[in-house]
Amino acid sequence: MPKTEEEKGFVEVINGRYKPRGKFHIIEANQPIFDKDTGKLAGVTNPRDMTYIHSYGGEAIFFESLGKGKLMATRCDNEKCETRGSIYQPFRIACPDCLRKMTVIDMTEKARKTAKIHSFIITHRSGAFNMLAKPIKFINVEFDDVVTILMSYLSVGEPEIGKRVVPIFRTKNPTYTITDLSFVVENTPESDLPEGFSY
Amino acid sequence: MIKFSEKQLKIPKLMRPVYLATVGMSKFDRAFPETRTEELCIDALTAAADFVKMTPSELKKYIHTCYYGHFADHFGDQLLGEAVIHDRLGLDPLGNIGVKTGGATGGSAMWEAIKAVASGYSDCALAMGWERMDEVPTDEGNHLISAAADKDWETPLGHIYTGYYAVMAQRYWKVFGKEEESFRKTMAEVAVKNRGYARMNPHAHGPMDITVQDVIDSPIVAHPLRVLDCCLMSVGSACGIVCDEKTAYEITDKPLRIYLGAGSHTLRVADRRDMKIPLLPNENKGQYDDLGKRFPGGDRYPGFSSFLAARVAAYYAYHMAGVVDPTEDLDLVELHDAFTISDIQTYEDIGIRPYGEGRDYIESGDAYVINPNTKKPGKLPSNPSGGLIGCMHAVGATGLMQIAEIGYHIWNRWDEIHEPIEKWKAFGREKPKDWTSLQVKGAKRALAISHAGVGSHVTCTILMDPNNLIKED
User: Which of A121, B28, B48, B380 suits a disulfide with B392, CB 3.0-4.6 Å?
Assistant: First the structure.
């Protein structure tokens, strides 16, 4: 049973602190577990309904940009770093070699022009709390001049290693999670994109 | 391109030799609705005491520090579960610490215990591991496992760890397996072998007498992996006790030398950067120059098709112990067969076969206790315990079960642990009428790989009969 608007928990940052409002857990009594064969007590259930509060920190710009239709990455511009110029997608805050904060760059166009599938998997299974439609088509996406390979999911088309794909973004009612970014095979008409997504 | 410095590639040195004195393990099963975790841990420690003909109280008197491998706290809704077990084992007020490195947790717990003894801090240390994954509904369990991936970049994508892992299998299948039906069959042979070996193991939770076709016909999980290609999800406990030489010989007249190397790689496969293949002692410079030509798409190392952490762990351990060629120098291995395909990948990472040729280890028959092609003993039997596919994967205990199992072979006491009808009965399991000893005859040296998830942590443990060391101290 989904929570009503009044039952949902919200959090804001006020004066540098998290300020929760609304309900964050609904208490449910535990239940005994009996062995059906012997009738004897084996244990108890311990129901939990919890909400974690989590900072995106220096990655916040990446997740905020998805809702604006942009794919941000980072690049090490430290002249003294031996891997200077490396572009990272997944976006990472600090260079893994020199540990300097990297430059945030917009790689939306690069992704549109060069994204292709490195590997993929189609699964009909998911875990609790999954919000993606099944089957899920996981894809790993490589881009020209990017040293890493992004994991995402394909919303339209069939995955194949080497196939060109294009990023799409949940610009309507973004969730501010990685699910706001998805891919479709090249030349997918805009009308075929999932609800809320655009190129 | 990642480069390693000489300091990073320094061969680890133990300040004094370390010996494995005894090991023990509980029964493994999918669920224990009427047994607390501490009862399983007590079973494992009691088995370790029995093995050296001591009472638990006598054995405990030697222990100085304790290293506990328990990965998934959140499954049990119990932080500091290690303190609970430590108390229930009656080991207070000894110092203890919890170790968590995913699927490699058992191996990592042993790594910590070995270092404690090697440094002189302790003369005797306990490494014990356990896991409890049966006490949440399956879909919530899948979510909890997926929390071992990156919570912002991966977990929201389906909350299903298999998906993050299977993309690597897919890449290996396409690039190195070339999508060949013969390779699909070789993958299935791993499952047939390991589930078949598990039939001879009363501790095992997934024994099956199956065929290659059964594996290929089993329900699909994520192409190319099917249900019977995948490891078990188990509950249970295992332990090992390591000592300096003097203490080891006080506990037993036949302790085993133990070496361990550890490696790591990115939590997200997405973060892997390219590098040159680090070579093991049995490989030559330039050997892989044409790898991309022979296997188009295979030139990106480690890419999605190799486990760098396994290679680095083997690099350290082989040099520590003097192993040059694992197939020649060792008598058996216990590998982390989380999936049939990852088992094959590991053959290459640890140098049993060169990159691209892992399948030959199975196809040649070398990986069997009895080579099915020649009907003679296999050159380097793999996973006679049944492995993760046939015996168990109780995460924190797995690496320690593997170490225990290779130890039983070198001690030449495998039958004593796996044969007695009393044990089969006590575990409520039927001993097969065709029960066969899998004791690897004359085993003197063996290896166990403990591996986490997509390859974030790997340990490589080597055990040797002290009279058959390769390298002088």
Answer: B28
Write the residue in A46, A54, A86 that is nearest to B77 by C-beta. Answer: A46
Which structural domains are found in chain A, ordered by start?
A: 5-44 (no CATH), 57-198 (2.40.50.140)
pTM of the full predicted structure?
0.95
**In chain B, residues 215-244 whose CB comes closer than 8 Å to chain A:** 221-223
- What number is the average pLDDT over the span A3-32? 87
Q: What is the DSSP letter of B51?
A: H
Q: Are strands A181-185 and A150-156 parallel, antiparallel or unpaired?
A: parallel
Name residue A155's amino acid.
S
pLDDT above 70 (res B1): no
Q: Which of B4, B134, B157 to mutate to test the interface with A (most CBs of A within 10 A)?
A: B157
Q: How far apart are CA B9 and CA B5, in angstroms?
A: 6
pLDDT in tens, B135-175: 998 899 899 999 999 999 999 999 998 888 899 999 999 99
Name the residue facing B156 among A140, A147, A177 (closest C-beta).
A177
Integer Cα distance of B28 and B393 in angstroms? 9
Residue type, B354: P
Give residue A6's pLDDT. Answer: 75
Could you tell me which of B266, B339, B357 has the C-alpha nearest to residue B307? Answer: B266
Looking at residue B263, its amino acid is G
CB atoms within 10 A of CB B91: 18
Tell me how far CA of residue B122 lies from CA of A133, B22, B244, in angstroms: 54, 16, 8
Beta bridge partner(s), residue B181: none
Whether the Cβ atoms of residue B48 and residue B24 lie closer than 8 Å to each other: yes
Strand pairing class (A150-156; A136-142): antiparallel
Mean pLDDT, rounded, of chain B = 96
pLDDT at B249 over 80: yes
**Rounded to an integer, what distance in angstroms lies between the CA atom of residue B348 and that of residue A179?**
35
- Give me the mean pLDDT over the A36-47 stretch: 94
- pLDDT tens readout for residues B84-138: 999 999 999 999 999 999 999 999 999 999 999 999 999 999 999 999 988 998 8
B105-119 vs B395-410: helix crossing angle, rounded to 10:
60
For residue B110, which of B445, B398, B470, B452 has the smallest C-alpha distance?
B398
Q: Are strands A87-88 and A72-75 parallel, antiparallel or unpaired?
A: antiparallel
Q: How far apart (Å, rounded) are the C-alpha atoms in residues B79 and B446?
A: 35
Candidate from A56, A96, A131 with C-beta closest to B152:
A56
How far apart, in Å, are the Cα atoms of B7 and each of A82, B12, B118? Answer: 18, 11, 20
Give the per-residue pLDDT at B73. 87
Q: What φ, ψ does residue B140 adopt, rounded to 5°?
A: -70, -35
List CB contacts (< 8 A) between B271 and chain A: 88, 90, 92, 96, 148
Residue B467 sits at the vertex; the CA angle it makes with B315 and B15, to the nearest 5 degrees, is 50
Nearest to A85 by CA among A76, A93, A94: A76
Predicted pLDDT at A21: 87
Complex ipTM: 0.88
Provide the token pair at B261.
Answer: 């190397």
Q: Is B29 within 8 Å of B236 (Cβ atoms)?
A: yes
Show residues of chain A in contact with B150, CB under 8 Å.
90
Give the number of beta-carbon pairs within 8 Å between A and B: 140
A-contacting residues in B 115-154 (Cβ below 8 Å)? 137, 139-146, 150-154
